[in-house]
Structures are given as C-alpha cells and as structure tokens.
Amino acid sequence: MRTRVAEMLGVEFPIFAFSHCRDVVAAVTNAGGVGVLGAVAHSPKRLESELSWIEEQTGGKPYGVDLLLPPKYVGADTGGINSHQAQDLLPEEHRAFVDELLARYDVTQVADEEPVRGGLNISPKGYEPLLDVAFSHNIALIASALGPPPHDLVERAHSQNVQVAALAGTTEHARRHAAAGVDLIVAQGTEAGGHTGEVATMVLVPEVVDAVAPTPVLAAGGIARGRQIAAALALGAEGVWCGSVWLTTEEAETAPVVKDKFLAASSSDTVRSRSMTGKPARMLRTAWTDEWERADTPNPLGMPLQTALITDSQVRINQAAAHPGAKARELATYFVGQVVGSLDRVRPTRAVVLEMVEEYIDTIGRLDGLT
C-alpha cells in the first residue's frame, strides 16, 4: 500500500494497531504494520519494561506509544491529582452505589486483599515521566488519543524524528490538531471502541481529509477487514487505525469472559457510556452499563475520578466472572467498537493483518474491473 503514511513510517502496510497488549503491538509491527501501545495507565517502570521488550521482539521496526492528553479533567486547574488525592475526592454516594452493585452480583472481596488504586496519567505531572521513557526509546510515533498535543511535545518529537498523531472525533478537533503541528490526524468515527464522538466514520473521514489537507489522515472506527481499508482509502485516508479487531486475537490480554462475550456479540451490542472513564466511551453493553443508566443511579464522575472509583471493582468483577455460572459474568465489559459483530473467532494477530491485506487486494481488483 504505497501511501504517504506508509512512506513516512517506512512500513509495508499503513495499518496502525492500538492495543494495551505489548504482544499485539509487536506482532502487528512484525507483520508489516505499526503497533501502538496504549500507555495511559502505565507506570514509568512498567512502560520502560514494555518498550524494551517490544524493541527486542521487533528488531528496529517502527512502533508507537499512545497517551491521553485531555485539556479538561478534574484537577486541571491545579496541575492534576494523583491516585491518593482522587480517592479522597470520591463521593460517599458513589462508593455506596458501587459497593451495593457488587454485592447484588455476588462480587466479594477477600478480607486481606488490597484494593487496586487505578489512575490515568492525564495531567502533565502524570504523563511527562511517561514521555521521558518513551523518548528514551526508539519509538517512531507518539499519539494523543484525547486532546491536542502540547506544543513542547510536538517540538520534542520532531527533534527526535518522531511522528506525532492525534485522534479527532469532529472536524473542529482535527483543525486544532493540524494547527498544533501534528504529522497525522486520526479521524475516528462513533463506531469505534473507547472514547468517541457522535459522527460516523463514513461522514467524518472525507470532512477531515478536506479540512486539514495536506496533513495525511488515518481512518478509524468500524475497520477490521480489507474491504473497510479499501473504503477508508477511497474516502481519502492514507491508512487505518484499528483497535477492536485485536481484542479477540490469540495474543490479546482481554479477560476470558469478556473475550467470549465479544465473540458472541452483534454490532448492536455496544453503547457509549461514561461509566468507565467519566467521558463517553463505546463499550460492550452489559449489566454494568445498564446499571449506570438507571434513573436512581448517581451520575458518573468526571475524568479521572470515575476511573479511580471503578478500577478495583472492575478487577474484582473479572476475577469473579472467571467462575462458570457466576452472576458477576453479567457485569463484565470492556471497550469495543461496533465492528465487534464481525469478530467471531480467535486468530493469531499476524493472520489478522495478512487477511486484511489479502481482502484489500481482492477488493481493489474487483473495483478495478468496474471502471
């Protein structure tokens, strides 16, 4: 696929794979694409270990790191809050609701078990140590999944010959990213898993392509097959950004109960919910998302407080749901896009990439015959 993006990164296929799993990142890079590690919840120590491992596995091939850099979040006016401060800010009403919810679904906690204190490194004092680690490695790409990258980040990346990408859910977001000097803009439609806006990929991509030209655009949202890659390029994109398709691969670290749900789900089984991060994010609809939509349920907290509130409970839910017949299985969920309806079997990550490419070639050949 001879696109500008493929040439910029020096890859065979402009297929970017967002994943929290280092094994998936390495496998996609080794298959000719670009693996991108989602690291917003990593500690600097863990990120150092993950990137070192990825580089050992990929031998100098290009890969990237993805962070959340939102301009608005709880504590933004004071430079951010740490996980301990977040715990202190959690309302008792929300704690009580989560405790009652877990009890109703038979999710218990072992008496001597320490709670998991989750946190998102979304403030400068949270993500700057991660940037230090990332830039100490041979990364080819740094991506902002939420918000325009700061000017000093863009300058630092360019000084080290690192490409900068940013995700956009609206044309206005894309224009802001272009003004910030990014090298790639990911136009992500509402079909995508995780944080999304409300505009569909088919509409968003050509709008963004026209609005930010000549900055190259990647299409995201609803892309898991070669036909969808061909469609994205036809809309003016110069590559694709995929996330959901890797969640059912052999290498994925997806919780087994959630992976089983993904394999059985239809494209109608997802919902945009604030119940995991405090910002609208598409995930599998389950009893967890339904419970947060009840009229008598407290509203989800702002980012990063909602994550601090529910991280421990999510770990406990997945642990309890591992037992066949457990009521906790009804709660288990995770971020995934509408394309989950076509994820019906477990395959090696490399096989997914190559099947995408083969179907893309067949599609282009078929279209060639129509003109």
UniProtKB/TrEMBL annotation:
InterPro entries assigned to the protein according to its UniProt record, in alphabetical order: Aldolase_TIM, NMO
GO molecular function: nitronate monooxygenase activity
Keyword hit for Oxidoreductase: yes
Tagged with keyword Secreted: no
Alphabetized Pfam families for the sequence: NMO
Lineage, highest ranks first: Bacteria, Bacillati, Actinomycetota, Actinomycetes, Mycobacteriales
Keyword list, A-Z: Flavoprotein, FMN, Monooxygenase, Oxidoreductase
Protein name: Monooxygenase
